[in-house]
Amino acid sequence: MGQKSFRKIPDSVRSKVASLPRDEYQVGVLRSYRVSDLESDLLAHLGVSLQAGGRVVPPTALPTTTRGRFSKWNLVGRIVRRTDLPKVSRSWGFETPNFGDWSKGSHPITFTRQVYQVEHLYGQQIVIAMEEVSSDDDQVTIAFRVDRILDRTAAGHDADLLFALCLLQENVGAVDVVACTTSTDEWVREMALNWEFLPVGTRETDAVISELTRRLRLNRGDPRREGVEARLEALLALRPEQMLYGTSGFQRYVGAQFAPDLVVFENARYGNAIYVMFEDWEELSRRSRVDLLAGSGRGFERITHRRGWEGRLRHAVQTRRNDGP
Between 20 and 30 A from 282 (CA), which of 40, 100, 152, 255? Predict the structure, then answer.
């Protein structure tokens, strides 16, 4: 399922939490699975299975200790050494014979040292709630929510959020956040990705970039704007037929279409890679990054934003558009 857990709260999650309409929310995610995944017991640890009568998606499941350390801590608790607190004196001892001869009696020996304080955290037994959203012969979409309400204004919020994120990541392999007042139907509608096509034509590159950065809500003081503008300029240099802009919840995406079946897109605010899609791009673009990378890799090419990415992108587009070198 990819990354096992998190060492810190991802920046994209922090941004989305800050954008939620209410202080109270839940960690959750909408995720689609191939029927073959369920047949191979990918979610058997959560009680999700395929049986003769159809799919079985229980309303809740308590993660098992085998899924990872956060699942284990959720069930049985843990002892935390508090290195952030002052050390305290701790004494322990044992009985020893007088002059090495137990027949002559014994006496205690005591040692005292400065040690870190420890805190006993008991298992919370937080369950993961599940609801089947949609299904067909090939795919099943399930809504997962960690059954705990978080408050972004509460003391200890970051620790609680990180724990819930890691618990869901260990068991589902993907994370998101949603307002606790949002129904599953509303959540599905919010997350639906709809593209708006923006013809390029003879418009100046600067004008197109300016319109897209405005739609992406990247003002001139935003530190991400320069990087996004450079990526858009690289896309426009390849002469797309039209640009695309889409939203899904609080995420914003931008893309470029070079042929009816050839589209390049990325999450312009948080992405570290660009995706070249050349088979059924409309269906692929609705999948999350986690779903894409967990799949077979067919129908798209992922190009990370490392040195030379512009050349790799140009080659990928020209090869599939038959432009030649």
Answer: 40
pLDDT exceeds cutoff 70 at 78 = yes
DSSP conformation letters of 159-197: HHHHHHHHHHHHHHS--EEEETT--HHHHHHHH--EEEE
DSSP string, 271-318: -SEEEEE-SSHHHHTTS-HHHHHHS--TTEEEEESSTTHHHHHHHHHH
- Which residue type occupies 297? G
* CB distance 163 to 5 below 8 Å: no
Pick from 190, 271, 177, 254: which is nearest to 216 by CA? Answer: 254
Kindly report the pTM of this predicted structure: 0.66
Handedness of CA 287, 289, 295, 297 (dihedral sign): positive
Q: Would you say residue 323 has pLDDT above 60?
A: no
Residues 6 or more apart whose CB falls under 8 angstroms from that of 188 comprise: 30, 133, 134, 143
Whose structure tokens read 């300029």? 233
CB neighbours (10 Å) of residue 239? 12
